[in-house]
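Can you please make up a protein's amino acid sequence together with its fold in token form to help me picture the idea?
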Amino acid sequence: MATTKKYSEKAQEKVGKVMQEFKEGKLKSSSGEKVTSKKQAVAIGISEAREKGLKVPKEKKSK
């Protein structure tokens, strides 16, 4: 079974850097509040990678 990468190497690095900030307690949301959720930290990393134009899967559309 062949698997394809969903994220580019650079996008993975970006999310990794954001997660490191989260673990150190330095990550802040756009409103300036400290991020306390891992899910929120990952979402911020993916969002920043998307802004840079890196290969990231499309956002899921809600029904």
About this structure: The two ends are 31 Å apart (CA to CA). The chain has a mean pLDDT of 88.
